[in-house]
């Protein structure tokens, strides 16, 4: 089997993944998602940031928020 990607767990990644698994917060919400959104908002100078599951979802949110209609 040829892997699509090989994880690089060089820092605290394993600890954070284990914490998510141990607390059953393996989803699109939870403490780390909130921390990430807050860090991005602070970094960009925005009041809010929204984490999405992938780029397609992010683009769909952006198009919807722009007021652009269908077509």
Structure, described:
With 71 residues, the chain is mainly alpha-helical. 0% of the residues are buried. It has helices spanning 13-22, 31-44, 55-65.
How would the blueprint of this fold be written?
Blueprint: H1 13-22, H2 31-44, H3 55-65
* Helix-strand makeup class: mainly alpha
Work out the strand percent: under 5%
- Element-level helix/strand string: HHH
Q: What's the tally of helices?
A: 3
Number of beta strands: 0
Helicity range: 40-55%
Identify the overall geometry: extended
Mean of residue pLDDT values: 88
How far the N terminus sits from the C terminus, by CA atoms, comes to 42 Å
- Are there runs of 5+ residues with pLDDT below 50, and where? none
Major sheet size, sense and barrel closure: none
Radius of gyration: 16 Å
Brief write-up:
The protein has 71 residues and is an all-alpha fold.
Summary keywords:
single chain; 3 helices; mainly alpha; 71 residues; 49% helix
């Amino acid at each position: 089997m040829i892997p699509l990607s090989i994880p690089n767990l060089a820092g605290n990644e394993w600890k954070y993944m284990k914490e998510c698994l141990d607390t059953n917060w393996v989803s699109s919400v939870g403490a780390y998602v909130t921390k990430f959104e807050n860090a991005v908002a602070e970094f960009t100078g925005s009041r809010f940031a929204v984490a999405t599951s992938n780029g397609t979802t992010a683009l769909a949110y952006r198009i919807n928020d722009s007021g652009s209609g269908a077509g």
